[in-house]
Amino acid sequence: MISQKMTEAINTQINNEMYSAYLYMAMSAQCSEMNLSGFAKWFMVQYHEEMFHAMKFYNYLLDQNSAPKIKAIKEPPAKFSDIKEMFEKTYEHEKGVTANIRGLMELALAENDYASQNLFKWYIDEQVEEEKNDVEMIAKLSMAGDSPATLFMVDGFVGARGLHVESDFTKL
Length: 172
Ligand code: OFO
Known about the structure:
Elements: H1 4-33, H2 37-63, H3 83-110, H4 114-144, H5 148-158
Helix pairs in contact: 1-2, 1-3, 2-5, 3-4
Bound molecules: hydroxy diiron-OXO moiety (OFO).
């Protein structure tokens, strides 16, 4: 059993994760429009990862006999000036997500809620990976500069990213 305050905080984070998925779907759509299919795939994999994050929280609420509350998802920005800006925005967004997860952990610590602390530990580790990916991508794109040929090569490289999370949420 978790507190009402914790239920509400997790519900808010489900919505944040759904927004993350939506944001990366918007970025994937723009990459497809730009014929950068590798980056489009990278962001679509990220979309699935975010859906996984949302559904992991969702299932935790069900396991704790607390009702998930489905709220409206904010509209993401539709256009970005270029790929590098997308990753800079992604990095800023992920730093915000890290702060959200830390807030959840602080609440769990204040409430001596050990089960939620265990769950949030998984997200804390995940955020280290998420931010690292963005920093590496920004560095690669800085090295590529304005060269379309190099961007084409990087597009091929990032398109090799595979999906390593469960996307059938009936199995979580
Ligand atoms: Fe991108 O980590 Fe969830 O939101």
